């Protein structure tokens, strides 16, 4: 993979999967725009890459003005957007649909579904003008199956898959590709939060139970997801668009009956 001369924008780049994608893009030669509402995280990742090759941009992906601002910041800093990892997301509550809070539902949909839409809405015109670009939206296996007790998260991630397919059809004729990556449980802050919600007194037991349902019998790492994101953004994936890549240790292909 070679991203020399390319510019990558990564939302949620301050932590977890987005951070790994930022570092991966930089390792393969790209200039990187690290977008996050966590200023400290975004600045730390940009500093790790180096001032010449990365900028941090503090933005809430659910706010159109912030999205316009991170797109403009990328163009001001580096002049183009060649790769876009539309990745920021939140998990919401772990509660059955019959008990779920309306306000949390709205918040999760705002960040995960509308945030991804707004990213596409404001990055696609740049790529259309350039006549090139590749986008990877972070969905989840919750965009493929109905994970119990996560109604907002599941609805939002199914929306991400839908948005991916629509955009892929629209801009494919222009040579712009749009794919989705669907991680299973990944070792990041987010999964630790989910484990604590499921079992506040014994979060480790949740990891054991979840891992038992995965053919590879373990969580994935942020780098393992980032590797697939980089592949999908690279010319190696030149004929791949509108696809959903599961990075889940086989969880959705061959569930072991544990959820
Ligand atoms: P993480 O919490 O480590 O990182 C998420 C990042 O997104 C954080 O830096 C956070 O500040 C940022 N963010 C959240 N809301 C934002 C907003 N409104 N505006 C800007 N930035 C915002 O979690 P992660 O696991 O790296 O999650 C990244 C993506 O991967 C998410 O879309 C998540 O749904 C998805 N995912 C994660 C897992 C998992 O098990 N960790 C599984 C499937 C999908």
UniProtKB/TrEMBL annotation:
Its EC number is 1.1.1.47. GO terms for molecular function: glucose 1-dehydrogenase [NAD(P)+] activity. It comes from Neoroseomonas soli. It comes from the Bacteria. Coiled coil: none annotated. Pfam families: adh_short_C2 (PF13561). This is Glucose 1-dehydrogenase. PROSITE patterns: ADH_SHORT. The keyword Oxidoreductase applies. Belongs to the short-chain dehydrogenases/reductases (SDR) family. Transmembrane segments: none annotated. NCBIfam families: PRK07231.1. It is an enzyme of class 1 (oxidoreductase). PANTHER family: DEHYDROGENASES, SHORT CHAIN, ESTRADIOL 17-BETA-DEHYDROGENASE 8-RELATED. Keywords: Oxidoreductase. CDD domains: SDR_c (cd05233).
């Amino acid at each position: 993979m070679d991203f020399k001369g390319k510019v990558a924008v990564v939302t949620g780049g301050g932590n977890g999967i987005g951070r790994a994608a930022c570092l991966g893009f930089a390792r393969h030669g790209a200039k990187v725009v690290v977008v996050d509402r966590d200023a400290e995280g975004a600045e730390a990742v940009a500093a790790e890459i180096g001032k010449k090759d990365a900028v941090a941009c503090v933005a809430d992906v659910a706010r159109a003005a912030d999205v316009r601002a991170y797109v403009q910041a990328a163009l001001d800093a580096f002049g183009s957007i060649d790769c876009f990892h539309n990745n920021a997301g939140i998990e919401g509550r772990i509660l059955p649909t019959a008990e779920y809070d309306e306000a949390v539902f709205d918040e999760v949909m705002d960040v995960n579904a509308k945030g991804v839409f707004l990213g596409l809405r404001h990055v696609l015109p740049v790529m259309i003008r350039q006549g090139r670009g590749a986008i990877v939206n972070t969905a989840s296996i919750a965009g493929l199956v109905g994970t119990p007790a996560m109604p907002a998260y599941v609805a939002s991630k199914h929306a991400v898959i839908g948005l991916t397919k629509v955009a892929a059809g629209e801009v494919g004729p222009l040579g712009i590709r749009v794919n989705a990556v669907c991680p299973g449980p990944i070792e990041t802050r987010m999964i630790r939060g989910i484990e604590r919600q499921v079992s506040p007194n014994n979060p480790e037991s949740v990891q054991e139970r979840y891992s038992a349902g995965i053919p590879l019998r373990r969580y994935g790492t942020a780098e393992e997801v980032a590797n697939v994101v980089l592949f999908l953004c690279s010319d190696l994936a030149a004929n791949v668009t509108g696809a959903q890549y599961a990075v889940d240790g086989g969880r959705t292909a061959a569930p072991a009956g544990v959820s």
